[in-house]
Amino acid sequence: MTTEVLLSAVGVVALAGFVQGLTGFGFGMVAMGLLPAVIGLGEAQAVATLTGIAACVTKTTISLEHVRWSNMSGLWLGTALGVPLGFMLQTSLDQNLVLRMLGLTICLLVMFEMLVSRRYAVRMPEWMGWGVGLFSGSLSGAFNVGGPPMVAYIYDRPWTKDEQVATLNGVFIASGLVRFGLLVFHDQLHADTWISAGWSVGPMLAAILCGSWILRFIPQKQLRAGTYLALLALGARYLILGKA
Known about the structure:
By secondary structure, this protein is mostly helical. Helices cover 79% and strands 0% of the residues. The longest helix has 26 residues, at 95-120. The radius of gyration is 17 Å and the shape is globular.
């Protein structure tokens, strides 16, 4: 791995960390949107998994008092079951088709939230958590882009912005650890993977802290609106292009 490639990978991971610190999600989306062009798809998935775990642990630690632990059991269960399923199906399903389905689902969820839920006080029921976790975990296991379904569900909860952001990261830790175990079992963590991840951790952690600091000055209404617009843009991108 050349120095130029390494620095580019570190920069992408730092940017992903900043987005994670600011919104509580988006690490995998930013990383998988940019890293494959730098180090290839397979290596990008491995690096995103390692650094993503560190990012979520850091974000959860600095906002530990806001995590809604009592609401996470169904999300954790669904995620733990979904990641292996997505990982196994990765080679047997057409990635472009799956990502287009993801894009359509994201757009429908966000439009429902913006046009129906907020206007008529309709919320996704609590029991849907395990199903959302299963869907999110499956997408995470296959493509490391499992955030949007989980974000749409948790941002729909009547919690504060700090509780929403903190709980998101607590759930993402579970999916990251399961995916890490699968990568180890299938011997997909190479020397270059550890080098890229190791050099990226420091800048990423600094970026997370910066994003978390800025979060304190953003009202919840504006944060939610920005999140929904970002999700719509992401969903449209996946729906039209069909690639990460």
